[in-house]
Structure formats: structure tokens, C-alpha cells
Amino acid sequence: MQRAAAAMIAILWFSAAFAAQEFPTDNATVLAFDVVSIKSLAGIGRARMPGARQSQGRFARAATTLQQLIQYAYDVQPLQVTGGPAWVSTSRFQIDARTERTTTPAQMRAMVRQMLAERFALKAHTDVRDRPIYRMVVARADGKLGPAIYHIDDAECGGSNPQPCDLAAWSGGLMSSGMGLQQLAVTLFNRSQSTGIDRLVIDQTGLAGMFGFTLMFSSSFDTVPHVSNDPSIFTALREQLGLKLEPARGPVELIVIDSVEQPTAN
């Protein structure tokens, strides 16, 4: 019963964060780019433009799919986008969108959503469906955690502030001087390009408070091949943090594509 309640709280926490990212309440929802250039790369060789450029007033992608654009615009992972024709994940486009405004990350995502609605005629809605997930639990029967994680006084990290003190993430590592385990569970999924975790992770450890940790693991996403002595993310979680990911099924928030069209000409 306690685990079920903890799972529901974790799902509601994740859903609230998801909704807050998708539907910002400030004026970001009405912003739009001043100039947008979209070119289909069908039948064209590899784009020469750098893969991605982003500044406060510019959003550019050299060879992106609509699915990747939706992932960015709604701040979700690949498995959270569903529906639409096959070309959504195969056809590539060169995007260069600009504005003279100074934009926040949330406003930039909102502007990309507006671009998708205007130029791709994208219509989508959110849904919750049963999908494979991971349950994050304490690995040891005695409840002890691993050598690379430690409990901190909440006052050291802003008291009741739910945000982590800090987070450093790179290919093969995560480090924080203060983070709740619910936040760690969400981070493992949201940083899937680093962690390789392809399922929503729900915290069912039952452990409250803030924790500092350093997690080192081998990454399959390294662009430069090299020999790594670091363990897999699953082994690293168990040996370094004393946590275990167990396969399960549960509700996952999705972006469902209702209708979409090839982009309008510039």
C-alpha cells in the first residue's frame, strides 16, 4: 500500500512538471519568431550548416525530423511522442528561425510550438497511457545506500525549496550536491541521451529529503569511441548509490499527434 501511494505521488509530481513545461502561464505562449526558414532535405545531400545553433534569439537545426522538433518544443523524450504519418520520424528539414527578442528557454520552446502549428499545421494533445517504466527502489535488504551518495540537511539546499541545489550531467556521469530522489528518478529519464534510460523512472524508495551523489557509468552515446572501465547505468546505480531499477508498467504522459502536414514553403 505504501509503495502504491509513493508511486502515485511520484507520477503526479512528474505529471505536474510535464504540464508546467508544456503549458507555461506567462506570455511565452503568444510569442512567435520574426523570420522562419524551413527547407526540406528530400533528395539533398548532407547539410553543411552546423547541426544545431541556439541563442537567445535564434533556433537553428541542420537536418532535423519533425519528431525531434516536437521533442524539443514539448520537452519530452522520444517514447513520449506518438501518432502521425511515417515521415514524421524520417523526413529531415533545415530550420533557421530568428527573433529580435531576448528569450528564455521556456519562451523559445513555446515559439517552436507556435512554428510547428503555423508551418506544419501540427495539432496534438496530451494523453496518459500504460507503458513500460522502471521502479527505482533501494537495492539492499537492510535499506543502506551506496558509498557515493549521502544525505544532507535540507537547510543546506534552500530548506523546503523542491528544486535541486545543482546538477552536473555529462556523457557517463551525473553529480549533485543536493537533490531529492524523486528528482533523481526524473533526471535519469530526462537525461536519456546521457544515461541511456529509455523509460519513465518512478521513485519508490520511500526515502525523503535531499541527497548529494556522484554517479559514474559507461555511456553508449559517446561520439568518440574509447574503452571505458565504468559500469552500465544499472550496475552503477546499484553499486555506487545502492539503488535498483526494476522493470514495471505504469502511466506515462504522451504527446499524441492528431494531424500534421508537410511544411509550407518559405
Quick rundown:
The protein has helices at residues 2-22, 66-74, 105-119, 181-190, 192-195, 233-241, and strands at residues 35-40, 52-55, 58-65, 81-83, 92-98, 123-138, 149-152, 168-170, 173-179, 200-203, 210-216, 243-259. With 266 residues, the protein is an alpha+beta fold.
The N- and C-terminal alpha carbons lie at a distance of 57 Å
Computed Rg: 20 Å
Mean pLDDT, nearest integer?
Answer: 84
Strand proportion, as a percent range, falls in 25-35%
Describe the strand arrangement of the main beta sheet, using strand numbers.
Answer: 1-5-3-2
Low-confidence stretches: 19-29, 47-51
Order of helices and strands: HEEEHEEHEEEEHHEEHE
Largest sheet: 4 strands, antiparallel
Could you characterize what this model shows?
By secondary structure, the chain is α+β, with helices and mostly antiparallel strands. It folds into 2 domains: 2-20 and 130-253, no CATH class; 21-128 and 254-259, no CATH class. The chain has 6 helices and 12 strands. Strands 1-5-3-2 form a 4-stranded antiparallel sheet. The longest helix is centred in the first third of the chain and has 21 residues, at 2-22.
